[in-house]
Amino acid sequence: MVKKRKYVVMFRINNSNGYTLLSLIISLSILIFTTPLIVHFLNFILSIDSTYHQSDFELRQLHYYIQSEMNQSVEVHINHHSITFVKADGSRVKYELYKDLIRRRVNDTGHEVILRDVEIFEVKMHSENIFLIGCKKGDGHYYQRTYISNNTFTKLFQNF
Predict the structure, then answer these.
(1) How far is it, in rounded angstroms, from Cα 85 to Cα 106?
(2) For residues 106 and 91, is the Cβ–Cβ distance under 8 A?
(3) Pairing with 145, which of 15, 35, 110, 131 sits 20 to 30 Å away (CA)?
(4) Alpha-carbon separation of residue 88 from 52, 69, 74, 85 (angstroms)
(5) How far apart are CA 75 and CA 93, in angstroms?
(6) What is the C-alpha to C-alpha distance for residues 125 and 156, in angstroms, rounded to an integer?
(7) What distance lies between CA 26 and its chain's CA centroid?
(8) Whole-angstrom Cα distance, residue 95 to residue 105?
(9) What are 61-117's pLDDT values in tens digits?
(10) How far apart are CA 33 and CA 39, in angstroms?
(11) Element (H, E) at 71
(12) Is 152 helix (H, G, I), strand (E, B) or coil?
């Protein structure tokens, strides 16, 4: 007669009755280790002001567009609330304040919105080939950037 051996299983993986002692210890240890990390992570997330970063990104994009247009232009015409770039083929690209947004127009047609929620958009001459562009957003942040025209064929005109 063959004797059957009985084995005692301490930890069952397929336990249909509920949690085993091992699964309880593992879940509690994960909870104990992650709780302090979650508090620090939530404090970091709450400290980020997402609207400020969005405005910063939009303004960097505006400055990229203006720098790109300036590099491709042969003339730059400056007015108090607008700037116009004249390209070699004669096309005119204008950035201007229109209601509460900055728009881009090519040959005075179209209406491409570049920046929204703008209170102030001003363009000022600093010297012969240096001009300043200032912009105040609706959240109260004022941004200003200086542009230097490196193109020797560029002519800057005040009050075009």
Answers:
(1) 9
(2) yes
(3) 110
(4) 37, 11, 6, 10
(5) 11
(6) 8
(7) 41
(8) 7
(9) 888 999 999 888 888 888 888 999 999 899 999 999 999 999 999 999 988 999 888
(10) 11
(11) helix 50-72
(12) coil
